[in-house]
Design goal:
It catalyses: 2-phenylacetate + ATP + CoA = phenylacetyl-CoA + AMP + diphosphate. It comes from Endomicrobium proavitum. Its EC number is 6.2.1.30. The chain has eleven helices and 21 strands. The chain has 428 residues and is an alpha/beta fold. It has two domains: 322 residues, Rossmann fold (3-Layer(aba) Sandwich); 99 residues, ANL, C-terminal domain (GMP Synthetase, Chain A, domain 3), CATH 3.30.300.30. The strands form five sheets. A nine-stranded mixed sheet has the order 4-3-5-6-7-8-9-14-13, sandwiched between helices. It has a four-stranded antiparallel sheet with strand order 10-11-12-15.
Length: 428
């Protein structure tokens, strides 16, 4: 039931005492870095975790400005790995790990998978990318820590994915939600029924925003239980928060990070239950601790007790990122609102893109959706009725009336990694 029962079920008081001790140690360690040595020089020992709210935020741009070693708080000779963003918009953000950091990350990842029901007897296929991206390696080492046999296949090549799943009786898979849908259709084309021809039981999904409707769709297609996960490379990688068997919010491991929710406009700390931007402070990392890192991810903290018995609070499904929000003629819209609506229309495929253009000084929202040939009758009248139905539901959900275009299955671009849904074609 528990990977580390004592800490997973610790009383809130014991957990807060643990956090305070480790937070003070983290602050002292962070002062060894070039950046934090200036920002935190006047910070003395905290006597309450709430005093963390008085410390400055760290943002992605700060990490870029500190490239390459500005946030390194350990001797470089003790660093055994780094991960990095792509750096397509400037300096990449780099993150360093000591052996202790990697051991802790592996343990947290193993705890996540155990919490979801994986055991050492499972065969684990990791379809996420390896390399500088943390998604693949984080789960890989966690799975090995748990004792599962790992197939480090990486992304893409659906036929090869299916071959390994079938021949090695894979039971647990780490996969992008969008790729899970595509892989199902590849199985269907290959004459493979995942429910009867394979031994799949557990999917770990994440790394891109997705709706509850898409999770349930994936579970229905494969006959598995799909568990949401959360993490980001700046705070080590995947494994920061994970769903338990209840599938009702992700337990955020409060012996590893201290979470806060802030109003992204006023920067005011919000109470549990209020939606805002997630801010994280690491309390166990050696090489590169981060203090009050603004993740840009929108969620809320669920403080009600979980029936599973774990006392670590939960965060709700990530609604989107503050920088993902689309403003259409003054109306704020998140891509997940559109996905949620599309998922409720069986005749529509789950592959779609959103284009934003401007005409006569007005924003135009255009949504291109692949038709689902298995549920759509194929008449012109049926197509027009489907378009009208979808426009009405999208207007109800978002407050904006979009243009809808249906295209054949396979007509929209696909990606080996995180899927790109939004194309903002307005002049900047």
């Amino acid at each position: 039931m528990f990977w580390q029962k004592e800490i997973e079920t610790a009383s809130r008081k014991d957990l807060q005492n643990f956090q305070l001790k480790n937070l003070n140690e983290t602050i002292e360690r962070a002062k060894k870095s070039k950046i934090y040595s200036k920002q935190l020089k006047d910070v003395r020992t905290l006597t309450d975790v709430k005093q963390l709210q008085n410390l400055p935020f760290t943002q992605k741009q700060d990490l870029r400005d500190g490239f390459p070693y500005g946030f390194l708080a350990a001797d470089l000779s003790d660093v055994i790995r780094m991960h990095s963003s792509s750096g397509t918009t400037g300096n990449p953000t780099v993150v360093f790990h000591t052996k202790k950091d990697l051991d802790a990350w592996s343990n947290i990842s193993a705890r996540c998978m155990f919490t979801a029901g994986a055991r050492k007897t499972d065969i684990f296929q990791n379809t996420m990318g390896y390399g500088l991206f943390t998604g693949g390696l984080g789960f890989h080492y966690g799975a090995e820590k748990l004792g599962m046999m790992v197939i480090p296949i990486g992304p893409g090549n659906s036929q090869r994915q299916i071959w390994f799943m079938k021949n090695f009786q894979v039971s647990a898979v780490h996969i992008l939600p969008s790729y899970a849908v595509r892989l199902y259709h590849a199985m269907k084309d290959a004459g493979v029924n995942p429910k009867t021809d394979l031994n799949l039981k557990i999917f770990f999904i994440g790394a891109e925003p997705h709706t509850e409707e898409l999770r349930r769709e994936i579970e229905g297609l494969y006959g598995v239980k799909a568990f949401n996960s959360y993490g980001l490379s700046e705070v080590s990688g995947p494994g920061i928060a994970f769903e338990c068997q209840e599938q009702n919010g992700m337990h955020i491991w409060e012996d590893y990070v201290i979470p806060e929710i802030i109003d992204p406009e006023t920067l005011e700390v919000l109470p549990d239950g209020k939606e805002g931007e997630l801010v994280l402070t690491t309390i166990s990392r050696e090489a590169m601790p981060v203090i009050r890192y603004r993740t840009r991810d929108l969620t809320k903290i669920i403080s009600e007790p979980c029936p599973c018995g774990r006392t670590h609070r939960r965060i709700a499904r990530i609604k989107g990122r503050t920088d993902d929000m689309m403003i259409i003629n003054g109306v704020n819209i998140f891509p997940v609102q559109i996905e949620k609506t599309i998922m409720g229309i069986p005749e529509a495929s789950k592959n779609y893109i959103i284009e934003i253009t401007k005409k006569n000084y007005m924003d135009k929202l255009n949504i291109k959706i692949e038709i689902n040939p298995e549920t759509f009758g194929g008449t012109l009248e049926g197509l027009e009725n489907l378009k009208s139905k979808l426009k009405i539901k999208l207007k109800e959900e978002t407050g904006v009336s979009p243009d809808i275009s249906f295209v054949d299955r396979g007509a929209l671009p696909v990606s080996e990694g995180k899927v790109k849904r939004v194309y903002d074609l307005r002049d900047k």
